Protein: Putative electron transport protein yccM
Amino acid sequence: MTQTPSVQESIHTTQLHKHPLQLLGLILLLAGFAVLIGSLQMGTYRLHPQVVQTAVSDSAHQAVLLQLLEPLYDKPVDSDWQLAGVLDKAFAHANEQLTQNPINDYWARTYKTYLIKHSAEGLPAERPGLLLFLSIGLACLGGLLYILPKLRLLPGIKNNHIFHSATTNRGWIGWLLGSFLILFYILLYFFPYYITSWMLMADPLALWLKGGEASEWFFYGLLYTLAILVMGVRMLIKYRHSKYHKLRTGSVMFFQLAFAFLIPEFLVALNQPYYDLKNIWPLNYDLFFEYKITEFLSSGVLGLFMLLWGIACVVIGVPLMSYFWGKRWYCSWICGCGGLAETLGDPFRQLSDKRLVAWKVERWMVHSVLVLAVLMTVAVLLTFFTGNSQLLGVDSYSLRSWYGFGIGAIFAGVVGTGFYPLMGNRVWCRFGCPLAAYIGLIQRFKSRFRITTNGGQCISCGNCSTYCEMGIDVRWYAQRGQNVVRASCVGCGVCASVCPRGVLKLENKGGKARYGEVKF
Structure:
């Protein structure tokens, strides 16, 4: 007797057997990724004295390096690793002569990146557009081909075996992906001269957008934006039954493309300060740095507007918007970090730690970073206005340098994104983002936003807690009929979308009713 398969078995079978377009997309994605990695070893390098003169702006540095690097001129070097080693030795010898003005780590990194990039010969330098298409272009096309057939599946989050997947449950694929992301951020922040081939590939687009060449940050912005756009399509398909999710996904895609990528580059093309208008202090921690304030004030009316806009966002915009809509207006609708977490990081949202100890660690860490950001900003402002770099015995320049290294690079970059496949997609937002801490305090005590619950309808399935990217045990609140009012909640609304009984609802109402009634 033939048995008819159940609905769940049919869905499972459909998921195991990939659509032909998905198989083609996977092949193109892996091919593009392989070309991207392989491009780092393409070509050779040949240093010229003209490149040294252009790269080294300091006259003392330039004179010494031109002499020390003379044996290397017009001679082929096999790899960037070999050229970087030669340059390191040259810098060390140069510093023996430059005792008053040595080449520090920042200038060494800057010089090496420019020298290696402009000494390149071969495919990345000669056919950058072709290589860009064969790598990132094919990867994006493959990603879209893999995503689009999901239209044949039911919308929303389902029991799709995420806890049995090597990708989405800390399996070997997840570990490989996490390791790659961590390595990428380490190279980006600390060793950009090893990824000059990627900068060369982005040069044609940078020349078209801003009239200049691509830096490591332009390439990163391009990659970041494409990741949000491609994975944003996945989110739009996955949550196509929900107007709220479609709107917020479209919002983060728009703000990343327009405000975080295109507009800042257009400003550079117009000889104006590079500025992301949606990036707010203290997340934008260098807003009040001396060089940034000087840049604003020397750029006329537009520069003054940028500075006043940044101040207005901190003292007026954030409190006002957070009062009415909580953290969701920024963290789930505008923020670039949140945009990447909601799109690229969505497959890993169930990995967030829901334990009470994680919540305790989160509260201490995120508010400690906020306090540190405030102290650093006070110190650099005092230095700007008084010229004194000492605050309570701490040098403001050292403080901002260590903050940039520890929080801006290691925490926000290496850990914040690299740990997506290992600890979930909101590691930075939960444990490190000072702006999230600032908005969270307003949301917890002075906001109208809350998630209401109907405890009488809760069946304790746990979907809400499982898929909460911020590690909130939503089921605990739902079982008691208690409204969810937490400083960490970013209002993504996924808990309400996965609830099979409609127990949860996002609302904006004030008064004591915001906290609801605890029922045991």
